[in-house]
TrEMBL record:
Pfam families: HATPase_c (PF02518), HisKA_3 (PF07730), Sensor (PF13796). Residues 176-382 form the Putative sensor domain. InterPro entries: HATPase_C_sf (IPR036890), HATPase_dom (IPR003594), Put_sensor_dom (IPR025828), Sensor_HK_TwoCompSys (IPR050482), Sig_transdc_His_kin_sub3_dim/P (IPR011712). The chain crosses the membrane at residues 12-44, 292-318, 347-371. Residues 606-616 have a biased composition (Polar residues). Residues 518-559 form the Histidine kinase/HSP90-like ATPase domain. Signal peptide: none annotated. It is an enzyme of class 2 (transferase). Its EC number is 2.7.13.3. This is histidine kinase. It catalyses: ATP + protein L-histidine = ADP + protein N-phospho-L-histidine. GO terms for cellular component: membrane.
Amino acid sequence: MIRTYLTSVRRGFVLAALALVSWLDLLLELVGFCLLCVGLVFAYTLALEGTRPRAALTRRLTGRWCGIQVEPPYRPAPPEPERERDGWYRDGNNLFKRSWFIKWTKRFEWISDDPATGRDLGWQLWNPLAGLLLVPAVLLSGPRALRLYGKWTRWWLGPRPARTGDGWIKARLKALGFQMGLFALSAAQLGMAIPTLLMLIGPAPLFPAMVVAGRSVTDTLRREAKNWTGVRIDRPYLPEPPFPVPRADGMYRHGRQLYDTPWWPARLARWRWVLRDRATWRDMAGAAVNSVVLLLMVLPTATLVFFGFWGFLTLWVLRPIARWTDTSWSTTHWFSMIGLPEATTHWQALALTPVTVAAFVAGLFATPWLARLGARFAKLLLGPTEASRLGQRVERLKQTRTDASVAQAAELRRIERDLHDGVQSRLVAMGMKLGAVEALIDSDPAAAKRLAAELRQTSSETLTELRLLVRGIHPPVLSERGLGDAVRAMALDSPLRASVNGVLPRLEQPAEACAYFAVSELLGNAAKHGEARRVSIELGYDDGLLRIEVTDDGKGGANAARGSGIRGIERRLGAFDGTFALTSPLGGPTKATMEIPCQLDPDASSPRTSTSSETA
């Protein structure tokens, strides 16, 4: 017993000494952050990575000495950049000759976006205090103090389950922040609108550039309104004018005037574009109106929350400090401003505490509703008009028409190549062997029989290849049973553990074929590039919209800009005015969402039924 106690004391002192080193790690990270502010990104990354070995040592000692196993909570490190065939390294739309910049950028994003990094910083701040408390605690209770410290360490440094939602106070504080953010963006939009209008009086050629700059602020408001409140505000602007194209004589035309260079036609086209777009003037009107309305919405809630918080602070923090320091200034005159008596004693402070709590709760109560209401009001002026919807629709149709033509031409080339290299070659070989059979049937019947047997085998292989080719063009199960059963049959043939959920009615055959081959491409990518083992496919149809979600547990890191297969899926869906969204963080999972507007098949004689879930 005494030996166990002495061992616990010794281990407690070691853990306490190790805890004091956390403040040195925190100081090192603070220096790295200061260097980050002046552009030295790698210094902050090195500081964060350099402190993780001390955290790993604490985890090992906690498991060995305290009996509390603590698993590392960090996300997997990003892979090394891969050199492309031309010798360059690609990151998005940027090319680099060396990989070090991409590597440090990815590592900075990896370590700064990891929630465990923030918990490490909190642990480094509070762990020395816990270490100082551990010394007397381990002297008093021995192993019990060590176990308690192990639980403390696991809470900070161990993995935590993902939270499904925020608490009542946190959710409403965030909603209040969203209100203030929408007002700030509206004020910034107004700050851009005023000099833009002044450009009409002064240097008019800068007016289009100022309008485009102001639209970037307005787009930020639209994007954050969707992220914060769920209210979607689409961009209402007419498509930008194309760059002037020279005529046959080399001149550039704008209206009835010809120019030698495209400079003036391009400037005049952009000037006309921003002036004739109603959304330009609606943005400016919305900047003024939204700033006033959003201010009136956020002012009462912010005032009540600030009054409640500051009142509680003055009652129970500033008032005792003023009393202990014997200062003459009052800390509770805040209450006298609204007709309430000042609190000079603890009983008076206790009586005023419900007032501060009620003000704080009342201010937070309506913040989610007011945030959504403010976003909906902003949508009235910042949303799309009928003219902009029509213009965007025309541009969308032009792009999808081009994509559909490209996809159709690529599919025809594939079919032609498969027929030429496969079936046609086998048929030519069969014709030559038939000629040899005719020549040998009288002189060498045995050889003719062998050739006939080879012809039978070749004809069977040709028929199989032809069936596979036809299945690649349009699978028979898709025509016979519909998309749901066709996807289930595909899942059974997949090397992955695939589960298919959902029931679909018979849809238009072109839309079913598009969705089928898109799912086939995603399954192939998950098995070949994603190194996945399981995949889940969710099927659903509601109100004229087919929705498919494909989620795999692979390594992630899929990039739509670099994958030709993903680009092919986007072209297929674009021909049906569909959408494709891909989420694939490093380490997985990869989730692809496809939405295709389509109607029910009018030729379906009776609805087909299938199981709602199947695992292959």
